[in-house]
Design a protein that fits this description.
Length: 164
């Protein structure tokens, strides 16, 4: 009869445990980074809003229309009965409604790629809509979670103008 000998087990974790831990920690860090709202800068100035920008996994960014419009000098009018927002800036006039990809710009029909939507009472629009409505240059730096809106002719705060 053989004596019972206990096999000694290594106190080191198994390969599967290490791989699972690495995968889960990597996923947790990606989710934590994605959960941070993107910062919004207009003409180089950081803008805060009670509703932060919304970003998608596809790399699209949506910003609160009123705060952007107000910062860019537009007047905003909201009709609660129809859910329509009207923006006036200089000679330009934009009319749109949450959930509708059809908008009008200066009386002409404009098809939006993404319908505006509401978040906590704020209408969110895509950066492409801001670019078309205001003639602004827009960008979303996904790795840094930064959204920039630059109006034509503006120089970013602290930047030097190009010598001509």
């Amino acid at each position: 009869m053989r004596p019972l000998v206990a096999k000694s087990r290594s106190l080191l974790p198994s390969r599967n445990t290490i791989v699972a831990t690495l995968v889960l920690s990597g996923l947790a860090s990606v989710l934590a980074a994605a959960s941070q709202p993107a910062s919004l800068r207009i003409d180089g100035q950081r803008i805060t809003s009670d509703v932060p920008p919304v970003t998608s996994i596809k790399g699209e960014a949506f910003v609160p229309l009123r705060v952007v419009a107000d910062t860019l000098g537009a007047e905003t009018d909201y009709d609660a009965k129809t859910g329509t927002v009207e923006l006036t800036r200089g000679k330009d006039f934009l009319k749109l409604r949450a959930g509708d990809t059809l908008a009008t710009m200066n009386g002409k029909r404009m098809i939006l790629k993404h319908a505006p939507f509401a978040v906590r009472g704020r209408m969110m629009v895509s950066l492409a809509t801001i670019a078309r409505a205001f003639g602004s240059k827009v960008s979303y730096d996904r790795p840094r979670a930064k959204i920039d809106v630059m109006t034509p002719g503006m120089v970013e705060a602290g930047a030097q103008e190009d010598d001509k």
